[in-house]
Amino acid sequence: MTPFRTIVLVLLSCILNPAALRATKLVTYRFANETRAGAVVEPYCIDLKRAYSFYLFNSQKTGPRTDDDLVPDQLLEVLQGGEPVMAAVQKALDYTRQLLADTVEVDRLAAAGVIRSLDRVTLKTPLPSPPRILAIGLNYRKHAEESGQKVPATPEVFSKECLPIGPGEAVRVPTAVKKPDYEAELAFVIGKPARNVSKEKALDYVAGYLAFNDLSARDIQHRGSQWVLGKSVDTFASAGPYLVLKDEVPDPQKLDIKTSIGGEVLQHSSTGDMIFSVADIIADLSQFLTLQPGTIVATGTPSGVGSARKPPRWLKPGDVVRVEIEGLGVLENPVESE
User: Fold this and answer.
1) Which residues have C-beta within 8 Å of that of residue 310, sequence separation ≥ 6?
2) Closest CA to 47 of 58, 61, 35
3) Cβ(292)–Cβ(76) under 8 Å?
4) 268-321 pLDDT, tens per residue?
């Protein structure tokens, strides 16, 4: 990309969407056999660790720099670093955003490996190895109705024991699974240890939000009283493409959420239909266990799942499942046989 074209794209982005350069969308990206923590500021992916080192080198003119390694190169470690690391990340991103309007500085940033063109990197799931994935069942009123279940009095909690996949990665359906299903969900990520948290303070413990697909093997899920196996098939959790920081989501209970396959909309609702809000869930879970930074909690799915359709609509090879949540981006995954 030529410097002139680069600066035009950046300026157009600012004019058409003034919030574009301020929005913080954290990612895990892969480039040249490296997988690292970054942030998307279109049309670039900014490397968090290198951006902070670049900021220190250019802003601290004298004296030794003892905190070059403050920002880790993996997103989970960034979250585990708490407020000092997040503050350093924000400083580095603010500084980098300022430089992106200057063609000469864009070239310097690229030469230092601070930025990469977004079309040259591969976005992975933001947290490839979270401490745990928890999920809430029957948390939308209309989904409870279509499932023939009573509205739960307390959150229905289960765990997913598979590692998440990211945008573009394939959902691989084993031959033993005959009824694979989709579930679009809003997920939140814990930013600091949460134990005995009040509902009023709960959102203070959220790092950010992401789109999630709680893929389910319905035949395995319902063969016994426990859901874990049917919810934990390899590749049956998809998350991303971004971890959007909580400040960018003023109210997580007012988001449009949608699932489509091949242009057909299968789920379309609002997180306002949730029975238990994000704050309710954190307050409830934290009475019993400590939620660690990086923990992903999926908050339930709206009506329209494949198992409730007549006839049922199971996933099949060749499908591409598209999950969209307002402000959180688009998460697409192809489906194939294992």
Assistant:
1) none
2) 35
3) no
4) 999 999 999 999 999 999 999 999 999 999 999 999 999 999 999 999 999 999
